[in-house]
Amino acid sequence: MLKASIYILVTIITIWALSGVNFENIFKKNKIYEARVLYLLVCMSISYLVVNFLYDFFMYSKFV
């Protein structure tokens, strides 16, 4: 339950942070779906990495 809560929080923060990046200059014209898929994959990847780092950090810090 803790990990799911962290996933939701980090995903919202990641979407907010990525909204400041201008992806329009990276893609060709009329490639809207490709840009959205990449945005989604980047958001999911960053969220996954951050959540696993935070979760492992908090789990290991309890044992030290």
How would you characterize this protein structure?
The chain has 64 residues and is mostly helical. Helix 1 crosses helix 2. The chain has one domain.
Order of helices and strands: HH
Tell me the helix content: over 70%
Put simply, the count of helices is 2
Oligomer: single chain
Return the structural class.
Answer: mainly alpha
Count the beta strands. Answer: 0
Averaged pLDDT, please?
A: 89
Largest sheet: number of strands, sense, barrel closure: none
Any chance you could write out the topology, listing elements then pairs?
Elements: H1 2-18, H2 32-63
What keyword list fits this structure?
mainly alpha
Task: Give a short summary of the structure.
With 64 residues, this protein is mainly α. It has helices spanning 2-18, 32-63.
